[in-house]
């Protein structure tokens, strides 16, 4: 069956799913989005994703023409329509059609777009063997300029970092702030483990408040590994026992190298492995059921 894409209450084929070139999300990246997973016919942590979307929209003063219940119903419908049992949903709320100027107040109504599709995962070898990171020259946006807690459709900061990582043969980039503190990766949050304690950068440094990040904090705390949200530098990564990344698409992925230097023993560690197991169990629990038969 071909993909059916939701736009403002109707479904369209891939070829016919179109928005105006005058929509400010196209012209300026002025919009917000979410990436959400479907596990075994349930939309994982849907409420938290929608709450983050509404916060992002509020921050940029974008009025979404649907409330949280309507968004939930539309996402359920999009998943059902495409018969997705395990997959990924991209929800995009645009600023809408306006003039060629910046003024968002001249865009009367935004669009809501939902793409429910299968997901292309990182190769399994990264989960088994870990991945190598590179620190890139592009710094994460200053929060005073563009707060990373808004998940906006403007990802150029992250894309530049991704290009720099790719140019040196890496799949993910470590991004620092202007003081050299570790912030996050181009599309994932970062954690380190040292002597049984877990650290992740605080969001005030300019990291997205990842849904997966928050789940890991919950799981680690339950497993008696205290998680501190405090600034650290590359020194702490070079001397860490373990490092891992978190994200909706990546889930939890071990990191075994930064800037060509091995981390810990240069292989995925026991804390990361136990969190991966606990996370996978969680994905089967916290979902919003899509299909009546379960
Ligand atoms: C810049 C950035 N950081 C972190 C994350 C991880 O967030 P989440 O766990 O909500 O997917 C993402 C994922 O979209 C991201 O784009």
Overview of this protein structure:
With 294 residues, this protein is of the alpha+beta class. It has 2 domains: 4-117, Aminotransferase class 4, branched-chain amino acid transferase, N-terminal domain (D-amino Acid Aminotransferase, Chain A, domain 1, 2-Layer Sandwich), CATH 3.30.470; 124-283, D-amino Acid Aminotransferase, subunit A, domain 2 (D-amino Acid Aminotransferase, Chain A, domain 2, Alpha-Beta Barrel), CATH 3.20.10. It has helices spanning 24-28, 46-59, 68-81, 124-129, 156-167, 211-222, 234-238, 270-282; strands at 4-7, 10-13, 31-39, 42-44, 87-94, 112-117, 131-135, 172-176, 182-185, 189-194, 197-200, 227-229, 242-247, 251-258, 261-262, 287-289. The strands form 2 sheets. Strands 7, 8, 9, 10, 11, 12, 13, 14 and 15 form a 9-stranded mixed sheet that branches. It has a 7-stranded antiparallel sheet with strand order 2-1-6-5-3-4-16. A hairpin with a 2-residue loop joins strand 3 (31-39) and strand 4 (42-44). The protein is globular and about 55 Å long. The chain starts with a strand and ends in a 5-residue tail after the last strand. Bound molecules: pyridoxal-5'-phosphate. Pyridoxal-5'-phosphate binds at residues 35, 158, 184, 187-189, 208, 210-213, 246-248.
């Amino acid at each position: 069956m071909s993909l059916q894409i939701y736009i403002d209450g109707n479904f369209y084929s891939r070829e016919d799913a179109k928005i105006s070139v005058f929509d400010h999300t196209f012209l300026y990246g002025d919009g917000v989005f979410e990436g959400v997973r479907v596990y075994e016919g349930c939309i994982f942590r849907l409420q938290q994703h929608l709450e983050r979307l509404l916060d992002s929209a509020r921050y940029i003063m974008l009025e979404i023409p649907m409330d949280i219940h309507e968004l939930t119903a539309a996402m359920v419908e999009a998943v059902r329509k495409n018969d997705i049992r395990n997959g990924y949903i991209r929800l995009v709320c645009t600023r809408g059609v306006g003039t060629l100027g910046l003024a968002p107040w001249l865009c009367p109504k935004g669009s809501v777009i939902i793409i429910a599709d299968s997901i292309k995962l990182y190769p399994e070898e990264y989960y088994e063997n870990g991945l190598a990171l590179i620190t890139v020259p592009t710094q994460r946006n200053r929060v005073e300029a563009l707060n990373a807690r808004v998940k906006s459709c403007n990802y150029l900061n992250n894309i530049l970092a991704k290009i720099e990582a790719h140019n040196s043969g890496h799949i993910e980039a470590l991004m620092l702030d202007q003081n050299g503190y570790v912030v996050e990766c181009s599309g994932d949050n970062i954690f380190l483990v040292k002597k049984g304690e877990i650290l992740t950068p605080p969001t005030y440094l300019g990291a997205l408040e990842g849904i997966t990040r928050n789940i890991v904090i919950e799981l680690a705390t339950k497993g008696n590994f205290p998680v501190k949200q405090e600034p650290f530098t590359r020194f702490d990564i070079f001397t860490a026992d373990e490092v891992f990344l978190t994200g909706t698409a990546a889930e939890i992925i071990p990191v075994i190298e930064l800037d060509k230097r091995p981390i810990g023993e240069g292989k995925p560690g026991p804390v990361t492995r136990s969190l991966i197991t606990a996370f996978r169990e969680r994905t089967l629990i916290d979902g919003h059921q899509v299909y009546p038969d379960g």
